[in-house]
Structure formats: structure tokens, C-alpha cells
């Protein structure tokens, strides 16, 4: 049966007249907020606006099914829903529109995300998770279409783990035995994205309580459904997911019209019950919705919608249909509804006025203080003629922003740079420093955790070794490390392709599924994007996932989610949410175009907010895992693909020793040249260093160990102060990881002061490595390349000792 033929029964939920009128009031408040928001943008009080008008009624129905402990991953039109669950006030709504950076006024993002990006604060002032099981929760929205879907899958997956793993039942502030539903919302056009399909398929395989609502208003900005979706119906084309009956795997799929209040309430009640009780994923296709103001303030929908369509939308506006239903069913009178609409408009006007005052009054006060200080500076320096216009522009600006104030102070100080340092000048300088510090907190803070569990606060525990400790394969070191951590913390679990039954393709999890069960060591399908999303959502809910991407090259499937969601999560909520996910992968040297990648330039440029560990062997990797699994920050750990069969000594405290992030290690002391590298290149450089020693060149080899953070104590600069020469070597393309390291050392650490020779970079060829051992040799730096580069550097310095070779 086509979903279009499904007929829903009349409203069976026991709602009262008061409930109906409460919903009507809230719907109209939301509509007036949308209308007012658009006007505020056009008046110049906000830069951009995107609103939830036309989606009010289905969101009210969804809110009535949303319970304490539930989670939301949505998109930027869910304002009615957020207000209905009590997690958004209209003053907060306008504060976000104005980009108020005060976290008390705008708790979702502290002004860091544009309007319509909702979130609840899941962390207390100390950075610890609050009682998520007894509050209504919204994960932090992101703009890229369908990117909420991978995280949604993870939040639903957490409910499955909390229900099915008895060891997790003790964490009653995180879950009520997995009773929570993860509600997702998405626009009809965004269902064309691959992440949507991938997430739904995974949810069907996993059988998790994920309830997805598709708001279908027929368009994706200006592009109608006939260009977006086969059959112009996402529910029709997803009918293959429909389960055959209770107890069978698959989805439940419902279709309901977006203006049918009774049908919507009933559908959401029944759908959420199935989802919550049976852990069956649900897709609700909400059709026949409208978008009265078009997509956003960027343009008018009259440009691409026909007159007939515009007329249909006006007639089927869900608010108008709700009014008709209330009157027809005798739940209200015309006078009652008119009064509600009038009152709703007044409520929004008051909220808008209060929010603007809360945003603008502090800026105005800052402007007035700056002007007063500048007036004193003018009086002290006698520079009124040159500075008068600058100060006057700031003074008469009716709506200054903080950038105007700081810009004026900096330009004023520029004008008096040749004057004597008067009291007025020092006052302006101090005030500028204060404003810069305050705005750094407003706009540049909280990229990482500020809690006691931040990486930098984890106590360093050195590795210890028993006498005559045996040499084992590197994979066995990791296996012992993971085993110890799984025993220590029941919240830790691992998922990934081939991780479960065979213990990953390199056997670091071998035997652990048999020991800890399938819920903790779990195979997944081939779906890197949602493997990461599964981890993000579970980590948001307080679990400690390790998600494996089989090869570093395949990280590209998930780089968008890592960059747009995980990396900026703490930043975009100003410390309101965290997801301490560990992403485990392997790369560098092996064979071929797609199994030996080192795309560090891409990684370093796209995932600031995630630590990047590049251990040279598996003991170092284990130390990083021990640190990270005790921390509350996300990280990417890139193991050496050719290191699993190399022999290493297992520390006796394999699950306890920790490595600090950001601290390089000197592998070989030297006096002539410093070579800075990491990962598999360490073995190559060490081999070359031995050869160089045979010809009288002393090389200091430094393994940076982590790229983010990078050498926080400036140990590399100390080395350069001794050797006065440096080479940066890695396996990325030219200008990639080598350029990153060079910039940090020469620019940030200012180590250029110690150089007597030009710094050199040694990277791979500007292409993927070719297959075979010869392909590796001629594609990536080898020991001979390192030898020649160091030798050439020394030949320039002491040509008589080191004559040209070639």
C-alpha cells in the first residue's frame, strides 16, 4: 500500500480545551516571532534571518510526544518545537537573531551561530554533564543540510546501549534504561543528501529509537520536489524500509498532513510509543506544509512560486487550518481566538523590545565609555583636528557594534603614536586591552574543554616495564590497552568495520568481542560518515565511544561531520555541550593510492577543536588512548599502518600509563641539524641519522607525537638554539604537514632567530603514492632523501668537509 493511502484515525489523545488554546497561542507567538524577525533583518538590526513559519502545528504535535530524557537533532526551523518543550523563550529567540554573545541571554550558542540554531545546555559551569535523563535535550544544530542525521543515529544508538547493557543501568542521570527517543527533523529537499539515506539504513539495521520528521513544503529554496525526490515523495521511495509486522526489523512509516492538528497529535503519540517501547525507528512524512515568508531573508519566494501555488499555501496555512478546526469542533469562539492572536503579537513585541535592549544597551555603554576616554586623549594630546572626525563618527553612530569601538580605539592610538605617553593615552591603551580580552572570551573561547577532565589536566603517568618483559607484536600492545580500559570503564565501547568478530583488520581488538560482548565491541556496515555520527551522538549522551575508520584515506567520507559538527561543538555552544569521541584510524606507509595516505594538510585545516595524535608506535598510541579515555575532549589517533607486526615491549602498567599531548620527544640527540617529524617517518629518519653519523653529521631527531596540540612548551625551538639548522619531514604533499610545522616553529615559537641556514621541508611527491614497494620509495621520502637533504644543508655550511655527492 502506498503511504499516500494511509488514513489516520481521529484524535484520540485526551487533550482539553485549555491544551488546544495553549497550542494555538504558542503557534501564533511563533508566527509573530517569524514575522518580526524578518522585519528586524530588513531594519538592519540583524544580518540574516531564517524562520519556522508554516511549520508551527506539526512541531506542537511533536512536542507533545517529547518526554524528559529525549533528545533532538534538528534544523533551523524548529523554533515552535523548542518553545513548546520549554527550552526557548522568545527573548532568547531574538537574542540569537541579534547575535547576543551573553550566554545567559542566548544559551544555545552565545551568539556564535545564526538564528534558528538551537541547543540546550547539557554541561554545568564546571563542564560536567547535567542530569540529562530528567530534562528535555537538544543537541546543537548545524547548517549543512542533513548533517544532523549522523549525530541523530548516535543519540538513538545510545538508548539501545543503555537499555541492553546492564552495566550501564547504574548511570541513571544519563538514561532511564534506554527509554529515550531521539527526535530528528529535516526538510524534504535535504532528504536528497546521502547522509539521510545512510543514517536511515543504519537505524533500520541497528533497530534504535530514532524518530525522523520530514517537513515537506515541496521546495528546497527555489527548487521544487520534482527536481529533488523520485516520485516527489520521500515516504513512497522509503517504503522498502517498512517492517512487515511487530517483531520484524525495519521502520514504521507514517504520512500526515502538516495542517491536520488532530491527525498530527495522534500520529506523533502512536509513533513515539512504538519508537520508545519497541526501539523501532520511525519516519513521519509531514506533507502539505507551507513557507509563508519563503526560505530566508535572502530573497522572496514570489520569484519562483506560481500564483496558484501561493494561493494554495495561503489557503492551507497550518495556523488558519488550526483555527478552522477549533471553531468547527466547538473548542473556541471567534472572539477567543482573536484575543489570543492579539495577545500573541503583544507578547512578541515585548520580547523583541526586551531582547534588543539586553543586547544593545551594554554596547551603547561601552561606546560611551570609549568616547569619554577618547575625549580625554584629545584633551591631553591636542590632536582634536586629526582625531575629531574619528571620535565623532563613533559618537553619533546610532547602532554601533563592538568592532566599531575597538576599531576606533586602535586607529586613535595609531594617530598619537608619536606623542608622549600621557595619562589619556595610557587609559585608552588599558581600555583597548580590556575590550580585546573581553571579546576574546565572547568570540574565541571554548574550542576545547574547560573542565577538570581537559586533556591538559590528566595526570602524566610514566610507562613502567617489568624485567625481561617480552617483545610482542604492536597489535598486542593495543589489545592489552583496550582490554584494560574496557575493564576500567563500562561506558567505553568500540564500533567500526570489522572491529567485532575478527577484532579489526589488524587484530588490535582480537578476542575482545568474545570477552565483553557485541554491545561493546561491534561490527558496522561500510558507512564511515554515520560511524562517526554514531560516536558523536553517543558521546553527547555521556558514553565513551571509540569509532574506527579503517584507513586514514577513508576519513574523507566523514571529514564534513568531523569538521562541521564534532570539531566545533564546544565552541559553537560556548562550552554548553561536549562529545569526547575518539576516532581511531591508521595511515602513512604501506601500499598504494588508497591505503597509505597522509592527508594531514586537509585534517589540520578542517578539524580544529579535535586533537590529532600521530604516534610512531603502538606503545605511544596506547599512552594516548589512556590519556584520552580519561579526558573529555575529542581526538583523532592515527596509528602507523606498517607497525602492527613490529615488535615492542608491553609496559607493565599498560592501561594506566599516560602520555601528555603537545609534548615532542627527542629520539636522538645531535648537534648539527634538527629533523622534526612524526609517525612512520620516525623510523625512516632514524635510519638516515645512523647513516649520517657514519659521515660525521650529528642529527637531532624529534618526534612531535601530536600535531594538535603542537609543541606547547617550544621544545623544538630549544633544539634549534643548539643546532641552528632544521628540516621538517613528513609524508604529506609539499606544503602540507611540513608547512604546518614550519609555521609553528619559525613563526609562533620565533625560532628563526636561531637559524644559520635556510629551513628545509622534505615531503612526499604532490600525488598519491603509487602501488608496490617501488611506488612507496619513489612517492614518499625515504632514508636516502633524508640523508641527501641533511647532507646538502651541511655541505653549504662546511663544503670542505662535506663535498658534493652528485
From TrEMBL:
Keywords for the protein's UniProt record, in alphabetical order: Oxidoreductase, Thiamine pyrophosphate
SUPFAM superfamilies assigned: Thiamin diphosphate-binding fold (THDP-binding), TK C-terminal domain-like
InterPro entries, sorted: DH_E1, THDP-binding, Transketo_C/PFOR_II, Transketolase-like_Pyr-bd, Transketolase_C
Transmembrane intervals: none
Keyword check for Oxidoreductase: yes
Gene3D superfamilies assigned to the protein according to its UniProt record, in alphabetical order: 3.40.50.920, 3.40.50.970
Co-factor requirement: thiamine diphosphate
UniProt-listed Pfam families: E1_dh, Transket_pyr, Transketolase_C
Domain Transketolase-like pyrimidine-binding: 472-646
Biological function: E1 component of the 2-oxoglutarate dehydrogenase (OGDH) complex which catalyzes the decarboxylation of 2-oxoglutarate, the first step in the conversion of 2-oxoglutarate to succinyl-CoA and CO(2).
Name the UniProt record assigns to this protein: Transketolase
Species per Swiss-Prot/TrEMBL record: Hymenobacter frigidus
Amino acid at each position: 500500500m502506498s503511504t499516500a493511502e494511509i488514513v489516520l484515525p481521529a484524535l484520540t489523545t485526551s487533550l482539553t480545551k485549555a491544551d488546544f488554546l495553549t497550542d494555538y497561542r504558542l503557534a501564533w507567538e511563533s508566527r509573530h516571532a517569524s514575522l518580526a524577525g524578518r522585519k528586524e533583518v530588513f531594519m538592519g538590526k540583524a544580518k540574516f534571518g531564517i524562520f519556522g513559519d508554516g511549520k508551527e502545528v506539526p512541531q506542537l504535535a511533536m512536542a507533545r510526544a517529547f518526554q524528559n530524557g529525549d533528545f533532538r537533532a534538528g534544523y533551523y526551523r524548529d523554533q515552535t518545537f523548542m518553545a513548546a518543550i520549554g527550552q526557548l523563550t522568545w527573548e532568547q529567540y531574538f537574542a540569537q537573531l541579534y547575535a547576543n554573545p551573553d550566554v545567559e541571554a542566548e544559551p544555545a550558542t552565545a551568539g556564535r551561530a545564526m538564528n534558528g540554531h538551537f541547543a540546550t545546555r547539557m554541561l554545568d559551569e564546571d563542564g560536567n554533564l547535567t542530569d540529562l535523563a530528567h530534562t528535555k535535550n537538544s543537541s546543537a544544530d548545524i547548517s549543512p543540510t542533513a548533517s544532523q542525521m549522523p549525530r541523530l543515529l548516535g543519540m538513538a544508538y545510545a538508548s539501545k546501549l543503555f537499555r541492553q547493557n546492564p552495566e550501564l543501568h547504574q548511570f541513571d542521570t544519563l538514561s532511564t534504561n534506554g527509554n529515550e527517543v531521539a527526535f530528528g527533523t529535516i526538510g524534504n529537499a535535504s532528504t536528497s543528501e546521502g547522509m539521510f539515506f545512510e543514517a536511515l539504513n543504519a537505524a533500520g539495521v541497528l533497530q534504535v529509537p530514532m524518530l525522523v520528521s520530514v517537513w515537506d513544503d515541496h521546495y528546497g529554496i527555489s527548487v521544487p520536489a520534482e527536481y529533488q525526490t523520485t516520485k516527489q515523495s520521500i515516504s513512497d521511495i522509503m517504503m522498502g524500509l517498512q517492517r512487515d509486522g511487530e517483531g520484524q526489523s525495519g521502520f514504521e512509516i507514517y504520512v500526515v498532513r502538516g495542517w491536520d492538528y488532530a491527525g498530527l497529535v495522534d500520529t506523533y503519540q502512536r509513533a513515539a510509543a512504538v519508537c520508545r517501547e519497541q526501539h523501532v525507528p520511525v519516519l513521519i512524512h509531514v506533507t502539505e506544509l507551507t513557507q509563508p515568508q519563503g526560505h530566508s531573508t535572502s530573497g522572496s519566494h514570489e520569484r519562483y512560486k506560481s500564483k496558484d501555488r501561493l494561493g494554495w499555501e495561503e489557503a492551507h496555512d497550518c495556523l488558519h487550518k488550526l483555527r478552522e478546526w477549533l471553531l468547527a469542533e466547538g473548542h473556541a469562539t471567534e472572539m477567543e481566538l482573536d484575543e489570543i492572536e492579539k495577545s500573541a503579537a503583544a507578547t512578541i513585541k515585548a520580547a523583541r523590545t526586551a531582547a534588543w535592549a539586553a543586547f544593545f544597551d551594554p554596547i551603547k555603554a561601552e561606546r560611551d565609555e570609549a568616547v569619554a576616554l577618547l575625549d580625554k586623549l584629545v584633551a591631553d594630546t591636542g590632536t582634536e583636528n586629526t582625531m575629531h572626525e574619528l571620535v565623532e563618527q563613533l559618537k553619533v553612530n546610532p547602532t554601533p557594534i563592538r568592532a566599531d569601538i575597538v576599531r576606533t580605539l586602535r586607529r586613535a592610538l595609531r594617530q598619537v603614536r608619536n606623542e608622549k605617553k600621557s595619562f589619556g593615552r595610557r587609559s585608552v591603551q588599558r581600555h583597548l586591552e580590556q575590550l580585546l580580552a573581553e571579546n576574546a572570551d565572547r568570540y574565541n573561547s571554548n574550542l576545547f574543554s574547560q573542565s577538570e577532565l581537559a586533556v591538559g589536566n590528566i595526570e602524566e603517568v610514566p610507562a613502567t616495564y617489568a624485567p625481561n618483559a617480552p617483545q610482542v607484536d604492536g597489535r598486542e600492545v593495543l589489545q592489552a590497552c583496550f582490554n584494560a580500559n574496557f575493564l576500567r570503564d563500562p561506558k567505553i565501547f568500540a564500533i567500526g568495520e570489522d572491529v567485532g568478530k575478527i577484532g579489526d583488520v589488524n587484530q588490535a581488538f582480537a578476542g575482545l568481542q568474545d570477552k565483553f560482548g557485541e554491545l561493546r565491541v561491534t561490527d558496522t556496515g561500510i558507512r564511515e560518515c554515520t560511524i562517526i555520527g554514531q560516536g558523536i551522538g553517543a558521546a553527547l549522551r555521556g558514553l565513551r565511544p571509540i569509532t574506527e575508520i579503517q584507513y586514514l584515506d577513508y576519513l574523507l567520507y566523514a571529514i564534513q561531520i568531523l569538521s562541521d559538527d564534532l570539531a566545533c561543538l564546544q565552541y559553537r555552544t560556548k562550552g554548553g555541550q561536549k562529545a569526547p569521541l575518539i576516532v581511531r584510524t591508521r595511515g602513512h606507509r604501506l601500499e598504494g593510492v588508497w591505503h597509505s595516505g597522509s592527508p594531514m594538510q586537509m585534517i589540520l585545516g578542517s578539524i580544529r577543536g579535535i586533537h590529532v595524535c600521530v604516534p610512531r608506535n603502538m606503545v605511544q598510541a596506547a599512552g594516548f588512548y589512556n590519556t584520552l579515555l580519561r579526558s573529555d575532549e575529542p581526538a583523532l589517533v592515527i596509528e602507523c599502518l606498517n607497525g602492527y607486526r613490529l615488535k615492542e615491549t608491553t609496559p607493565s602498567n599498560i592501561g594506566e600509563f599516560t602520555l601528555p599531548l603537545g609534548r615532542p620527544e627527542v629520539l636522538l640527540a645531535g648537534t648539527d641539524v634538527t629533523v622534526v617529524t612524526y609517525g612512520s617517518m620516525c623510523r625512516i629518519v632514524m635510519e638516515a641519522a645512523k647513516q649520517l653519523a657514519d659521515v660525521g653529521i650529528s642529527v637531532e631527531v624529534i618526534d612531535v607525537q601530536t600535531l594538535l596540540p603542537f609543541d606547547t612548551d617550544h621544545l623544538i625551538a630549544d633544539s634549534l638554539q643548539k643546532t641552528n639548522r632544521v628540516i621538517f619531514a613528513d609524508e604529506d604533499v609539499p606544503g602540507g604537514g611540513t608547512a604546518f610545522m614550519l609555521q609553528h616553529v619559525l613563526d609562533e615559537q620565533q625560532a628563526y632567530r636561531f637559524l644559520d641556514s635556510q629551513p628545509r621541508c622534505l615531503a612526499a611527491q604532490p600525488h598519491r603514492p603509487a602501488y608496490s614497494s617501488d611506488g612507496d620509495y619513489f612517492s614518499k621520502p625515504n632514508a636516502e632523501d633524508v640523508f641527501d637533504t641533511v647532507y646538502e644543508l651541511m655541505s653549504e655550511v662546511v663544503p670542505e668537509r662535506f663535498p658534493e655527492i652528485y
